[in-house]
Amino acid sequence: MRTKILYISVRSDFGGGPRHLAQLIDKLECKYEIYVACPYGEPYGTIWRHDDNIKVVDIPYRKFSFFTLLKLIKLVRKANIQIVHSHGNGAGIYSRLLKLICPNLRVVHTYHGISDTYASALKAVASIIIGRILSPFADKYICVSNGEKKMAISRHFSYNSNTVVIYNGIDDPHHVARNVPMKPLNFISLSRFDFQKNMGAMYQIAKVFKDDERIAFTWVGDGDDKERLEKAAKNEHVNITFTGFSTTPSEYLEQADWYISTSRFEGLPYGLIEATSLGLPILASDVKGNNEVVCNNYNGFLFQSENEAIERIKEILNDKYDYQQLSQNSIIYFREKFTEEKMIEKLCELYTNITND
After folding, report:
1. Residue 275, exposed/middle/buried by CB under 10 A (0-12, 13-18, 19+)?
2. What does the pLDDT look like over 174-191, one tens digit per residue?
3. Which end of the chain has the lower number of beta carbons within 10 A, N or C?
4. Which CATH architecture describes the domain 185-337?
């Protein structure tokens, strides 16, 4: 009999967390009997509901509900679920309360970016209190970067004994190093337009180069800040192409020359991993997650401030660096650390270990 796993996510729209879950479902549905608790949403909520090999339970979008908790308790008991694996903070509330009520249940929780900064003091306090209260109620915590693990333990969200790092991974496209590009150089970002991704800072960087014909920017994604920034770019004649959300971002990455990120915090960003797999050098803010995909001066550069990023771009435009070597190093780094095969192998091993304990 196959092990039954319930995955919980309070998001099913575009983003690293839902995308990661979609990968797990795609690779593991032939090995495990899979249930998914998620809200309606595009693209993944629709995809999962049309997959005959999994069973989907509706839950609210980024909102806790006691009614939903009762529904999940009933499902776990009726279906004899053995493992619950939650993804992201909201989902982690449900999974660990399930463990409290059903102590024989095996619970795994994956953090997808513990925040370094919060939009408000109230959110910061609430996050820390909830994280500490619920910390005992999981068998294993998965962090997607070493920086995230360090933060989880220091904040008492988990313990060294029950926390592991499993890097996000993607399928190897078997790309080769890129040739030196012609100008204008295309700096690309795959991003949500929200507080975490800090696209306002990227706009200020791009604005500095609005009259420089050697550079252009492509922003792939959507979110709350997109309309405002797109309007500003049009009014101020900043050379940014806004593509909106794309289900095939690799097509844009193939046409780019550099990847750029200004995130305030990350778990382990898929955009950067995809960039390395295709041989793109990366310019990224020096925050956890980013600084485990970018090895400074090896496959790209990390920066502490907008001014530092601007100065680095000026050096890039003046051909200070060996582009082909940076590109080759990105591919090497990707294959060492971030393949989907490695990610799935480590996760299956974790599932086996906790069910045999």
Report:
1. buried
2. 999 999 999 999 999 999
3. N
4. 3-Layer(aba) Sandwich (3.40)
